[in-house]
Amino acid sequence: MNSDLPAPADTPRLRTPRWPFVLMASFLATGLIVLLLWPVKLPYYAMSPGPVEEVADLITVTDAATYPSDGSFYLLTVGLREVNAFEWFEARYLDPRVDLLDRDVVRPPGVSQEQITRSNLEAMDESIDTAIYVALERLGYDVTFVGEGVEVLQVVDDTPAAGVIEVGDRFDLIDGVAIATADQAGELIRSRAIGDTVVLTGTRGEEPLTVEIVLAAHPDIEGAPMVGVVFDTVNLALDLPIDVKVDSRNIGGPSAGMTYALTLLDLLTPGDMTKGHIIAGTGTIRFDETVGAIGGVRQKVFAARAIGVEIVFVPQDNYADALTAAGDGVEIVPVTTLQEALDYLEALEPVPAAVAAA
Length: 358
Hints:
2 domains, about 350 residues, 6-stranded mixed sheet, Pdz3 Domain, alpha+beta, Ribosomal Protein S5, domain 2, flat, about 30% helix
């Protein structure tokens, strides 16, 4: 044997690469962080485009003639949701349709989500009632309000009512005359003279209540008497000459008022106010037909664009913000009164027959 031959070299060992383990660990760590942080809500709400509803589908009139339109009126809504860190980042940097609101703006401290929801639904109901009142009054119908008496919302200091009447007291008789609404109560009191004594009859809690009040001079209306309270109608409702029902679809807030009024006028008036156009609108409506500002106008315009709306009515005070979301092909029309919207529709050119047929 030749002992001078070199010894065989050691066979090198193959090392297992570490990067798959590092990558897997990173994925697991990221997943764990997401899992832990996802349920944690930040003190913000994301406001995004909400559902869009064709208003004529929500209104039912059963005892008056209605007239179909080739076009449509749509009401616009927003969606609100509390956000976690990831949703906050998306809203803040990635989605221009979404705005972030401080939680205290949407839900003030001490106010529950249930209270907010109930308040918004009540605001929608009031908005619908006002829209129906405005539309039917314009069409010449006799519309009245009914109620079940009045409730005291405020007692003014240094007036005859102070120390005698309490907030929450309810009255349904003044000097033996039945009163159903706050307007009726005010008219009856104003028919008396300063210094007259009036007798108010009702309840305090569950107990019967009768008080006598010597009417004082109203500080702001010369020669007018006053009790010294602010009345609200108990269970205020419309007494309608025709049967009109509106399905609010559990949408909250007062911002659809103007659009409800326009749609009801269109339904009950011969002809076609839309003239074949796809129209949306947002804005509150008051009994004097003024249109008030609303929230979330940018999101509502984005929602309108998504379904091909051509014209969007917005309150004048929201016009500048609405323009930032309009894009091409959508006309933003600012209005301060219902009449301005009607004037615009009156001057609107009809959709050409060929286009409408297509």
